[in-house]
Amino acid sequence: MTMQLSTPQTVARRWGQRLLSVALTGAFCWTNALGQQPEKSATPPPAQAAAPAKAPAAPPAAASTPSDANSQIFKIQVNEVPLIFTVTDRRGHYIPNLNQNDFALLDNQKAPAKVDSFHQQINLPLRVGIVVDASSSIRSRFQFEQQSAIEFLLQVLKARADRAFVMGFDVTPTVTADWTNDMDTLETGVNKLSPGGGTALFDAVYTACRSKLLSERGPEPVRKAIILISDGDDNQSRVYLPEAIKECERADTIIYAISTNWTPSRGPGDKVLESLSTETGGETFYPPSVEDMAVSFKAIEEELRSQYALVYTPADFTADGSFRTIYLYCYDRRYQVHARKGYFATGQ
């Protein structure tokens, strides 16, 4: 279906025809608010959107967040959905300079009523949880984990604008360094960790999102992520994997997992890490050594620092707390979109 753009005066009259066309074909083509002429045709997406993902479209609560010259402030209404996403090629390289017409979107399998804004965002302030497996199963690789955490903090975090916390977990999660931009405090928090006990991975992810990241909202956008360093095994959690993922979705938090599995094959723990990262819009990395981690962290930083921001109004939004799926893809099938798979429809 070829995208047709209208002037603002004729959008309302033509929208009913567009929705009918979408219902018949299962495809959605963007309405470009800026009146740009589209150049591509859409391939109909699947009727069923992908698995659940992230947080509600509720307006952010007030908090003190450092400003960034390249950030734009969003004023989100109850029925507006903010979506931050990245686009990479098959080698994982970030793809910049794409336009609104390069994408198609379905919200709850329907085309949005309108797109309120679309632009690239560079260098948003980061809110990062460093979550480190400190269970007995990781004892032989624990020094690798500590080095990984410290290397990430030194390489990625910018002291002026970003903040992070450190959480270790065995049977229970323990915060050893609370929200701060002080590198010495964060490094000390990592060095306080010591291995021992069972593994409650899902509990740790759930707690990090619920207790630390869910409340991290401000008057301007921030990029929230968990850097999870673990082998992915879990034998003690009270919550299940889907519950941990849903809490990440509520907190609008991406998981980037660093696997400590050094075996050539991918075990059950790696599949757990991939589920956590994929469902939240992140990625799992398998660095074989501390020296190789720099490449992984560079890829993570590129995604966190360079992304696209979209705000749209769903066609049939009701603030009933239900989970609404998001299906976003790029017309150029060489590129992969990394975005949350949905949100919870909660109002003010």
TrEMBL record:
<feature type="compositionally biased region" description="Low complexity">
    <location>
        <begin position="48"/>
        <end position="66"/>
    </location>
</feature>
<dbReference type="Pfam" id="PF00092">
    <property type="entry name" value="VWA"/>
</dbReference>
<feature type="region of interest" description="Disordered">
    <location>
        <begin position="36"/>
        <end position="66"/>
    </location>
</feature>
<feature type="domain" description="VWFA">
    <location>
        <begin position="127"/>
        <end position="304"/>
    </location>
</feature>
<dbReference type="InterPro" id="IPR017802">
    <property type="entry name" value="VWFA-rel_acidobac-type"/>
</dbReference>
<dbReference type="InterPro" id="IPR036465">
    <property type="entry name" value="vWFA_dom_sf"/>
</dbReference>
<protein>
    <recommendedName>
        <fullName>VWFA domain-containing protein</fullName>
    </recommendedName>
</protein>
<dbReference type="InterPro" id="IPR002035">
    <property type="entry name" value="VWF_A"/>
</dbReference>
